[in-house]
Recover the amino acids of this structure.
């Protein structure tokens, strides 16, 4: 077969990693693809001198290059990147991208254009870096009805929560270190507020349940309000706090939610630490399966980028109708299952409040929960360390509708013996 020529747009961390992996492992990659894989054109804002490879400072020159078979989009963002990808598709080029925001927010439009042009769009590296989770759901678990999935899919947040638990450090202190180490951006909003994880979750949910991409419907909550006290009390109760993306199929629809979560400490996913990622997928036939590895980084992400290049190279001679569908289900088979609002979900809860140290306060709180149909699983009531009038009261509830829990919290906060707001963190057994 003739060589398959690659154009890489973006020569940052992942772009450089991709070039290095293809160069270093070219013999193995070509042997697996069944044809020679050649990087023939690079588009980068800053020119580079790379032997034997054409370099353009205009990335759109790569999309216009008639010799390029596969354009690899690694520039990030959702505006120029979308224009670039759509231009490549219009020119009949296949596309590989690591851009989760692009796929989550514009994937439906991109896939429709690609289908009309008969080209592939591959995005394994958009979720969980080097973990082949998209291929696992789309192909490896194709015989299953996926019941739910839950993932630690942002390494920055996981690093922060790990440091808080293992070393007793405050959130702000660990965030600064994460920025110094390059794990977090100067503006860490996407990581610590859950937006990055929400982009990834909506992609996984579409693959799992055959629904269109609906990023705007993901409930998103970050980790900025998690305190070292909550981390410690969770440990005392036998749990660990992780920032999870959860997608679950229920009788009412599909849950799409990203938020801090208490997980039993014996679960494997509760022991995924540092910047590592993990995704737990429950299928009706296979049961629970766990996928673990590096969720970011130059070469782990490049591993997935190159895997997509190989997949496309293998399928170049195939009828487009016989290729693996972008979102696992053929476009005509995507369904309109509704997305469940956060008030309609049902889970257990961790509650922490500051209660006046006097008889009867606990019974008042318990009565409010009982009146709301919420039963108590466990209680921690700390003795006063000093002569302080208020002490921490921690309650673990059984499963309840979120709307009932919110109503109960409002009534608890109105008690004259409760000071300030009640901290609430959802609990998942993942068993």
């Amino acid at each position: 077969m003739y060589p398959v020529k690659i154009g890489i747009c973006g020569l940052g961390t992942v772009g450089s990693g991709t070039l290095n992996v293809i160069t270093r492992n070219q013999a193995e990659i070509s042997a697996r693809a069944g044809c020679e894989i050649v990087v023939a054109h690079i588009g980068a804002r800053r020119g580079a001198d790379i032997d034997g490879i054409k370099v353009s400072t205009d990335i759109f020159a790569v999309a216009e290059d008639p010799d390029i078979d596969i354009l690899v989009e690694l520039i990030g963002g959702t505006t120029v990147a979308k224009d670039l990808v759509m231009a490549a598709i219009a020119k009949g080029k296949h596309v590989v991208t690591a851009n989760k925001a692009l796929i989550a927010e514009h994937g439906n439009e991109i896939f429709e254009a690609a289908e009309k042009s008969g080209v592939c769009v591959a995005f394994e590296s958009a979720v969980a870096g080097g973990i082949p989770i998209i291929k696992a759901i789309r192909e490896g678990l194709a015989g299953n009805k996926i019941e739910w999935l839950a993932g630690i899919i942002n390494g920055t947040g996981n690093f922060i929560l790990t440091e808080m638990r293992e070393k007793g450090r405050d959130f702000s202190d660990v965030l600064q270190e994460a920025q110094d180490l390059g794990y977090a951006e100067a503006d860490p909003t996407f990581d610590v507020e859950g937006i990055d994880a929400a982009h990834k979750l909506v992609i996984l949910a579409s693959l799992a349940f055959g629904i269109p991409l609906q990023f705007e419907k993901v409930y998103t909550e970050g980790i900025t309000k998690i305190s070292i006290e909550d981390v410690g009390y969770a440990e005392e109760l036998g749990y660990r706090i992780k920032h999870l993306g959860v997608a679950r199929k229920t009788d009412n629809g599909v849950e799409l939610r990203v938020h801090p979560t208490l997980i039993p400490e014996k679960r494997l996913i509760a022991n995924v630490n540092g910047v590592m990622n993990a995704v737990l997928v429950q299928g009706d036939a296979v049961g629970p399966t766990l996928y673990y590895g590096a969720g970011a980084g130059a070469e782990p992400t490049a591993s997935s980028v190159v895997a997509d290049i190989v997949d496309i190279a293998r399928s170049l001679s195939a009828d487009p109708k016989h290729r693996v569908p972008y979102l696992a289900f053929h476009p005509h088979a995507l369904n309109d299952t509704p997305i469940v609002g956060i008030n309609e979900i049902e889970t257990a809860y961790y509650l922490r409040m500051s209660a006046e140290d006097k008889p009867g306060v606990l019974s008042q709180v318990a009565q409010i929960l009982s009146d709301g149909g919420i039963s108590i699983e466990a209680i921690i009531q700390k003795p006063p360390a000093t002569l302080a009038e208020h002490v921490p009261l921690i309650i673990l509830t059984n499963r309840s509708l979120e709307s009932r829990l919110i109503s109960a919290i409002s009534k608890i906060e109105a008690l004259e013996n409760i000071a300030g707001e009640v901290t609430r963190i959802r609990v998942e057994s993942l068993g």
The domain at 4-130+298-333 is CATH 3.40.50.720 (Rossmann fold).
